[in-house]
Specification:
The structure is a homodimer of 362-residue chains. By secondary structure, the first copy, chain A, is α/β, with parallel strands linked by helices. Chain A has 9 helices and 12 strands. The model of chain A has no long low-confidence stretch (mean pLDDT 95).
């Protein structure tokens, strides 16, 4: 096998142990004679897989009993519409949604929300999370939406964000690209959502964690397949769920538990990010553009000061098996995504290459 | 490995060759060092997988150039909302959708459509497709929706349905449970959709085949992630598609081509269905309830005349490795789903058991 480290922003690297188990079980899951892909979602085999995945995720994130966990389809992006479609049904016309704008994913959410409600951008910055004291919130807003880790720009709300004090505000958080990389206080949030293809599993599964009192408030035009209450009441089986993706997510959850859970993932994320940012900060060959206090521990965008060397940098990286380091087309430069499944050896190899390339081109 | 035949209605049996290839490639696709699950959807590796899948499906169904093929999320059920959300934007208030009601899936589609438009049930029967001469169509209806194979009730429009003559009617067909089992004249339809988990691949992928002039007619409240025009314009990558499911679907398409394509699948479907219905008709121990002229070649519901023997029948079947024969809870009885990936040996084993069980309980 070609030995590589895959820095893709998503779909992204998965634990090798998980892939090996999936390969071994592909034709015959636990002596059933069936692949997980071939199982009825209503049969006892798949139900056991589903229930274990739900239970393990609940344990990993310490999700309180008054929250439902939904396994949906459509991706994180679809939630930009599905959240208003599910939360605004009880509001009179003219509901307002507050947003904290911190980058490309906030921007997409804002644009989509305008279809369903008034939008107020309570604060905006793409290089740091605006201080809470500066947020201009709307009294009586339907909810406050934030993207707690911007995958493209690399701005992350820091772990102590759990100390945020917001009274009478329903907080909706897009945690797609850093869920399960740090401990969170779920009770602070009304809704947490995440596309799976960064820290959870394959693309095609979307996790929604929702406080029960927020169910049953869908607009009449909300498609039934995406009605949170119907999905919750049917344990994510109102229609056929993405069974194989849920199975892989479940294997990832088991792997996370074996590693020591989210606390251990947070420790590793800090160590990996410290190593990488130290290398970038320690060289005048590279630069980063996010305020140090809000640098993402998952997605590390960086730039060569001499961007004419970008192609040479990427070619040299690829030759060393360091893949998918090109930055998002909207911002250019480079980006290293270092999710839970990225071993520290991958970051060490990248740091060695950063130093080597800088040394060669001084 | 336990040797079984899996008669599940979906998710359902897949070709063993496909599963074996997926297992072999799980940790390293074509020397890339990556699992398909780990690939960026925008990278050259996955793009090549996507393009091959699209091309092969287009070839298998002879999809004309003026049709787009979309690989979406949400399942066939979600299309009951997404079709009106995408087709009614150019209609003044008060659009009407015509339906042919032939069973449970038509019923679900009708219920959902009422959220978005007036509904006219042009004809209704759950044991046969109503003759076209009896359809009461609405002049100027937005479109006519039909489910061409009812997975639960087992009513199927017959292959010669391609001879249907409908002038100035946009035909929308839910082909979830028999797509790729017979040749179709795509040009007769405005939209064809199908959840993947019966004849295509794993749950979590939905195929939409749409005539280009029907794009761009979405209602303002249609979520962007499910806007057919945005999906079409971005080659199913407006947001991250269900990459692994598309890969498996692509392997199934390659398998279908190796077998001889849809014409050969249709021949086999007829042979399998003839064998099974002959056994059911030939015994006074069992009964079927669909008019012979509209019996599904994919989903064969049947009943023991003495239903007190249902549990014994299922237990005996399971002991012989004949799995998932219990009928849908809404209709009871038994159901054998015999999709493309079910070998004739599976049907032969079922027929042998039908005869054996009937003989034992006379």
């Amino acid at each position: 096998m070609t030995h590589i480290f895959n820095f893709s922003a998503g779909p992204a690297v998965l634990p090798k142990e998980v892939l090996a188990q999936a390969a071994a079980e592909m034709l015959d899951w636990h002596g059933s004679g069936m692949s997980v892909m071939e199982m009825s979602h209503r049969g006892p085999e798949f139900i056991s897989i589903y229930q274990a995945a739900e239970r393990d995720l609940r344990e990993l994130l310490a999700v309180p009993d008054n929250y439902k966990i939904l396994f949906m389809q459509g991706g994180g992006l679809s939630q930009n519409a599905l959240i208003p479609l599910n939360l605004l049904g009880h509001k009179p016309d003219g509901a307002t949604i507050d947003f904290i704008h911190t980058g490309s994913w906030s921007e997409k959410s804002i644009k989509e929300a305008r279809k369903y409600a008034n939008v107020n951008i309570a604060a905006s910055s793409t290089t740091a999370v605006p201080p809470q004291a500066e947020w201009q919130l709307t009294p009586g807003a339907a909810y406050l939406h934030m993207c707690t880790n911007e995958t493209i720009g690399g701005v992350e709300y820091q772990p102590d964000f759990n100390d945020l004090r917001l009274q009478d505000v329903t907080l909706v958080a897009d945690m797609s690209s850093h869920i399960l990389s740090r401990e969170i206080d779920v009770a602070k949030y009304g809704v947490i959502f995440a596309g799976a293809q960064k820290n959870i599993g394959p693309a095609g599964v979307t996790i929604v964690i929702i406080r029960e009192d927020l169910l049953g408030k869908a607009l009449p035009v909300c498609p039934s397949a995406f009605d949170f209450k119907l999905v919750a009441d049917n344990e994510s089986m109102y229609n056929t769920p993405p069974t194989y993706g849920i199975y892989i997510a479940g294997l990832v959850f088991q792997w996370l538990k074996r590693q020591g859970g989210v606390a251990e993932m947070s420790r590793r994320a800090q160590a990996k990010a410290d190593l990488l940012y130290a290398a970038l900060d320690g060289s005048d060959f590279y630069e980063t553009r996010v305020a140090p206090s809000n640098r993402s521990r998952m997605n590390v965008p960086f730039y060569l000061k001499d961007e004419s060397r970008n192609e040479a940098f990427l070619a040299g990286a690829k030759a060393r098996g360091l893949l998918q380091l090109k930055g998002h087309k909207s911002v250019g430069g480079m980006r290293a995504s270092i999710y839970n499944a990225m071993p520290i050896e991958g970051v060490q190899a990248l740091v060695a290459y950063l130093n080597e390339f800088a040394g060669q081109h001084k």
